Amino acid sequence: MSARHDVIIGISGASGAAIGMRIVERLAEHPACAVHLVISPAGERTLTEEIGADALPRLRGIAFRDHAPSDIGACIASGSFPIDGMIVAPCSIRTLSAIAWGQLDNLLVRAADVQLKERRRLVLLVRESPLHLGHLRTMVQATEIGAIIAPPLPAFYLKPQSLNEVIDQIACRAINLLGLPDVSAPALQWHGET
């Protein structure tokens, strides 16, 4: 068996909480992955409103470790703690802006900043539309400092048959962007992708 991959999943308050949940579910299915979860207060609200009251307990039950967003001293806030990458899904414009401009006022943003300073992969599933120039400039700033901007867009050419298939495809794509050896195995590929 390969070495364990510690991955941080941040869920912020933008719409699309089901994508973050599916990413956690997919990674938790993989025996080599340990998911460190950070959910903002707005993310908690969105999970409850979009998925249901059982979403938070389910997520916290399958994550390797659940970190309070106020715990800026958590292990994942340190560059010396071995993390293999981080995904923020969904990533609100507020969270994108805080990451891009170094406003480290909570653990989700601090953990993302650590990924950037340690030159680790940070994938941001920015969920907003339409975008004004300030949003676009913030995405450029985040990209220039090392983040991967990956809006959660469906791959219509795969002809998904349901919303769940769209969510799964986006989740698998985000996981694959981490570039982890032995994690982007066929078990983490959407069945229609070639």
Automatic annotation (TrEMBL):
Domain of life of the source: Bacteria
SUPFAM superfamilies with a match to the protein in the record: Homo-oligomeric flavin-containing Cys decarboxylases, HFCD
Limits of the Flavoprotein domain: 7-169
EC id: 2.5.1.129
A GO MF term: flavin prenyltransferase activity
First and last residue of the signal peptide: none
InterPro entries in the record: Flavin_trans-like, Flavoprotein, UbiX-like
UniProt entry keywords in alphabetical sequence: Flavoprotein, FMN, Prenyltransferase, Transferase
Binding site for dimethylallyl phosphate: Y157, R173
Binding site for FMN: G13, A14, S15, S40, S92, I93, R94, T95, R127
Catalysed reactions listed for this entry: dimethylallyl phosphate + FMNH2 = prenylated FMNH2 + phosphate
Known role: Flavin prenyltransferase that catalyzes the synthesis of the prenylated FMN cofactor (prenyl-FMN) for 4-hydroxy-3-polyprenylbenzoic acid decarboxylase UbiD. The prenyltransferase is metal-independent and links a dimethylallyl moiety from dimethylallyl monophosphate (DMAP) to the flavin N5 and C6 atoms of FMN.
Family, per entry: Belongs to the UbiX/PAD1 family.
NCBIfam families linked to this entry: PRK06029.1 (NF004685), ubiX_pad (TIGR00421)
UniProt protein name: Flavin prenyltransferase UbiX
Name of the gene this protein is made from: ubiX
